[in-house]
Design goal:
Keywords: Initiation factor, Protein biosynthesis. InterPro entries: NA-bd_OB-fold, RNA-binding_domain_S1_IF1. It comes from Luteolibacter arcticus. The chain is mainly β. The longest helix has 5 residues.
Length: 73
């Protein structure tokens, strides 16, 4: 049995700005902006993510305008 995370697209992104705690605007490598939220693991102990930070994003193939921040690099 596969999990929901097996089918997601993974890429690096750059944080453009913070909307609220845990909600960010991130740029994909192709320049497209997406709304990104913290994964459950990161939300438990929210890291300080400054503008310009590089993050690992997980994107559902069903909604390419939203992403989950899986890791801060």
């Amino acid at each position: 049995m596969s999990s929901a995370f097996d089918d997601c697209l993974r890429t690096r992104g750059t944080i453009l700005k913070s909307f609220s705690p845990g909600l960010y605007e991130a740029a994909l490598p192709n320049g497209k902006a997406v709304v990104a939220h913290l994964s459950k693991e990161l939300a438990a102990h929210p890291p300080e993510i400054p503008d310009g930070a590089t993050v690992l994003l997980e994107i559902s193939p069903f909604d390419l305008d939203r992403a989950r921040i899986a890791k801060v690099e």
